[in-house]
Predict the structure.
Amino acid sequence: MQQPSNVCPVTYLRQTPQLLVPLLACCLLWAMPVQKVHAAVVCTATMTDVNFGSVDLVAGVGLTSSGTLNYTCTNDATTATNVRVCFNIGDGNESLGFFNPRRMKSGANILQFQIFHTSGSIIWGSTGNGTVPLPFTANFSIPRRSGGVNGSVSGSTTMTGQVLNGQGAAPVGNYQDFFSAAGGHTSISWSDGGTAPTNCTGTTNGNFQFTVKAAVIKSCTVSAGATSDIQIGPASGVPVDAVNSSGTNSIGVTCSGGTAYFIGLKPSNNNTAGLGAMSGTGANTDKVPYQLRSVSASGPIWGNTATATSVGNGVAGIGTGVAQSVPVFAVAPSANFTPDNYSDIVTVIVNY
């Protein structure tokens, strides 16, 4: 007998829900979140400014300074992890492509400097930099997350700053180089894992901005000692009837670049017009007068009325950062005195 035509639709309708159940179960399994097994390490850092303060480029004072890097790395995994962290420093806003040496600027003027690891001998650079390829690195193990608190390791290191020698010509001014976060001048990179990593190429995130700054001040030094002594007349002696006997020598003055200076000469009798008197030896009470002059033996008198802003009866100059030789002349109008060796001490005063 032929089966009724309405039986088959009922049979297939019963099977359809049974087929849907395993398909739904399969979809739910794929939608379930995967359990995290990799440690989530995060490293942050801050750097203090490297402030040289007042720098005397002529005397070589204030050429070193330091800053401190403070860092913290955390681990939110349930197992401890080993980390290698690199703290990278490139050029600053003022250096722009100059790494060795780096540069501070005051307007268009340049002051060269360098920054080193704590040892003071290794330049602090960045991974992959062909000129300064050695960042500061730290290796340590971070504890696991415990009691709802991430594992954490903190530390610090000292950066040594050095203003390069031989820059006396750099003009007076406030110099700086800003290692900004926005400019990408610093970065933190790290790798982590069950064994101690050998590089820092895993993650790069964050930075630590800071400023290097220095105030170059006015400065002058003078060299005038035995090598600057003036011999009036021949060393063998001046004839008693000689007039206007003279001698000359030079003093050395070194002033910072662009610094105006004014030199005064003061005989031991404190005469402000450069008119001194040489004394003899022993019981000899004779005094031999002499006149200090600039340019030549018959040039302008050289006294001690100069100030920091006025040349007076002195001699003026502009500093170049290197020693400048300035001639001094001494003239004795008369030699009609008791034969003896006569001398006097002249003080050189540089006003700036």
The two ends are 130 Å apart (CA to CA). Helices lie at 7-31. Residues 220-351 form a domain with the Immunoglobulin-like fold (CATH 2.60.40.1090). The chain has a mean pLDDT of 90.
